[in-house]
Amino acid sequence: MSESFNMDNLPFSLLSQKEQAMLNSHLDIAYFQKGETIITAGEVPEGVFIVLKGKVGESDGSELVDNDAAASVFVHYQDEDYFGGWSVLNGKAIHNFIAVEETICHVLPTRTLMDLIASNALFADYFQQSLTAKREIVAQYGQNQDMAEFMLARIEDGTIREPLIVLEGTSIFEATRMMREMKADCVLAKKGNRYGMVTGTDLLDAVIIKNMPLESDVSEIASYRLITTDPQDYLFNALIMMTQQQIERVVVMRGTELFGIVELTDVLSHFSSHSHVIGLRVERAQTLDDLREAAQGLTDLIKALISTGVKTRFTMELLAAMNGRIISKLFDLVIPNDMRPHVCLIVMGSEGRGEQIMKTDQDNGLIFRDGLEWSEMHKVMQKFSETLISFGFPPCPGNIMVSNPEWVNSTNEWAAKLSRWSQKFDGESVMKLAIAVDGKPLAGNAAMFKVARNAFLRSIKNNDIFFSHFAKAALNFDTPLTFFGNLKDKGMLDIKKGGIFPIVHGVRTMALEYRILETNTFKRIEVLVEMEQLRKSVGENLSEALSLFVQIRLKHQIQRVEESADGVDKTPNAIDLQRLNKLERDLLRDALRIVKDFKKHLASRYHIGS
Fold it and tell me: 569 vs 358, 393, 558, 560, 561, CA distance in Å?
């Protein structure tokens, strides 16, 4: 029995007290000298080893040459990391495990491990199952469990308010009196089978601005285009929706059945970030300096969300909404009122997909009405880009910004440019098209964007040659795994090339093929699964892998920003493998295997030769 073994670490924390006691009673202690082989490739290991003190290298067989390890070492284990589990389940080891320095390990015998796997399904899943299963176990049983429980909270879990409902024919005076008595700040007016929202502001405008009599039917001033959500949707999604739509309540409905109303104050009582405060400051900004000050709070918000364990996908969606509000507000402050109906600001790339977290390069463009005469257009667009830079949005190295006339086009010019890029198969054209097809309208007249997009989609319909060449870009970068399926690089790994881009571009290609208008990669995957173009298990694994890549990248970005003198991360896609713990390395390896399999699927689907 060992008193020094830490049962709080995954996967051992998944065991019951009785199982932990059994594990502890069978643990051995083993001592190894520097350079001593602990597990030999090709042999059956005696069990799982958990490092108590020292450092172990997993190697393809080369000898140690210094205090760190030989160039052939794939992974280091130390500080309560465990190793040998896969070798035990596989029946023999394919690598050597060598003590890099004097090392002490706990040893969990193979027989005991198998007994625990047989008795505890979660413990077995952690060793045996997919990336999705492992991530779910980590999310539920790892750190930040309180926040994880919040992230899994549903709207129906106690946050729905019973609404004040009045029937058609109720006067404005009576509705106001009822709202005062019930201490409600809104009322739902029922007209036939429809519900319309009336707020206190609506009542005030009707009487003071429009001079409507107090006897007027309140249903006449109701808004029947309700923003609704389902009672089983996630509570956090309600916060994202309110942020995107700039509203303070949503109506909860399932089909035509009314459940009630969710208020922003109720959601914020569950979520303590200052996102709404930033949102209010953005909306109230009257000058560029006001807006700049509000925008500078986003970095602190990102850190707060991550430190409290908020899931990466939810963080991306909330931050995309916040970025969108900032850029849209800047559009209102910079673009003259008489020009706004005739132009459309679009965001592209990761901003268009809603997958940015830390502020990265600007990728934006402007579409204007055919025949528009606006002599100040280039000057205003230059100011727009420069202001965004001052807000902390770095300039795009490829100059894909509204300050570049190439990305300012009339509706017909934009449609023609997309079609022209689709007919060329050189790297630059594919890159520009990939950025552009992730575009979405953010401010101004969205109709112009939709006209150009739809014309482009018609031009590539059933064009197998285009899709084959377009998909090929997803295969341009090697997956950083060895022949045996372990991490290839020992130093820095470009996570965008190795993991993020193949998933994003492969899914982008399939979404284009099936005219899926969603731009977010996670949502594209969901639609592809619904259309049965991806198996559900494949879709889940791709989503989990992408989320993991973004999460690990963000962690390293924050570290580099905090360590830099100017607060700028100059290598945003670099992952330092030495900074990863054992759990992160295992999950990263599993995620990269998913990428490798997906690339094989793309090569087969689009008939891409080697």
Answer: 10, 12, 8, 6, 5
